[in-house]
Amino acid sequence: GNSVTQMEGPVTLSEEAFLTINCTYTATGYPSLFWYVQYPGEGLQLLLKATKADDKGSNKGFEATYRKETTSFHLEKGSVQVSDSAVYFCAPTIQGAQKLVFGQGTRLTINP
Amino acid sequence: DTGVSQDPRHKITKRGQNVTFRCDPISEHNRLYWYRQTLGQGPEFLTYFQNEAQLEKSRLLSDRFSAERPKGSFSTLEIQRTEQGDSAMYLCASSLVGGQGHGYTFGSGTRLTVV
Q: What is the pLDDT of residue B101?
């Protein structure tokens, strides 16, 4: 079945720092890959996605590239803001699979 | 359409009481999912529906839990004889069949506290 391993948190950075949150997955077939973000007290919001190898998903300055050879989908942002403070979840799914599988999440705190 | 709605946002109940949560998905979405999230953890799958049919249930869903989607639109999740271990955020999500490439849309969740 599918599983995902995320970089353990918490991660604390200063504003304008470079961010990387690592994510690797195991899956049979050819998964679609997603990053979700959860702000305090809220549900999950889709941040970005990639559906095939070498695709790059991007949104709000965040990017992640689908690396099939390393089964990775690392999240990056060149210059983080205080408003990016949240918990980030990497989640793979595959065609025909009926549910997303989430890792434990990475809590990100950005200090001004 | 304002997205996936969940009601209530917060529920505090005494141990042993029954509680029911409601989820209204995006109207054109035919799949509806329930997840549970405890503090500091990622969401765990509970069950999902395609239209009104409940197609999969996790082993996490004990006999005290029941979910319905009677008309293929809104869904309810009932927990009977609540226990302190049931305290968690209950998340609902919806999607289209074949929408795996688009991800799911989540509601804001119902936070349950059992005292």
A: 65
